[in-house]
Putative peptidoglycan binding domain-containing protein (Micromonospora citrea), 293 residues
Amino acid sequence: MKHVRITTRLVALAVATLVGAGACAFDPEADGGGGGGPVPVGAAEVTGASGAPGPDQRTRPTTAPPKQEAKPTRTPTRPAPKPTRPAPKPTGSPSAAGCPQGEHQREVEAYLARLGGFGTLTVDGRQSAADCAAIKKFQKRYDIRPAHGRAGPTTHDVAKRLATTDTARCKAGSGTTFCIDLTRQTTWVMRNGRVLVKPTVTRTGMPGYRTPAGTFTINYRNVKEWSDPYEVWLPYWQHFTQGMGFHETTTYLHNKAIGSHGCVNLLHADAVRYWELGRVGSRVVLVGRRPGT
């Protein structure tokens, strides 16, 4: 009997150990500030710490039939009193606008209005259906995830960097020149002294692998280059100095906790566009310095 009790206790202890080991789960930071470790490819932008479900969360539709309006059994003895003045119209809410309002609503509205091309916005700090559509369009263009129309930290950061980029800092000259503002982490293309491709986002070298400022020339291109030291494909590769060049990013571009090994990372659409415009001999001008490098 004693032997059976000991065996029972050992089995119970083993089950508890296994269940406890399986209970641990990764809990990402709910800020979106990029202060954690490397984010895997496809990670979402966490823009809020609210426990309420966001617009990207779908709920199961109800299957219950709608209730029928009850018919009156008798005619009212007197009419209902009419309101003396119309009820005030709602001033707008996240549910009415179709997407949630973020903590940087007014600033994002102002930056997007300044950038242009994303729709009509009202710079008043209140979410509207038009604001929602414009912010979603902006988020989709620059691969900010999820593209739910909320003016969160990453959307605000990207909009500010793009809207405040001074394209005149790039001394382009004649011909096609690829320009990179290392401080703002933006890039654009000039041709004969005029902006050919408007500023877009980039991510350059992380601490220990700083991308240098200066003027260089593209001297090698390959639509799909293999990186020997890091064992990863580099799509739309255009080399310009010291093993550094343009290529499509292989990670989530807006994760500031990481960076490249000196290369200029681009979103897919921008990498394709830069490949179409680039040639061996094209100029590359880098100004400023990435913060923290």
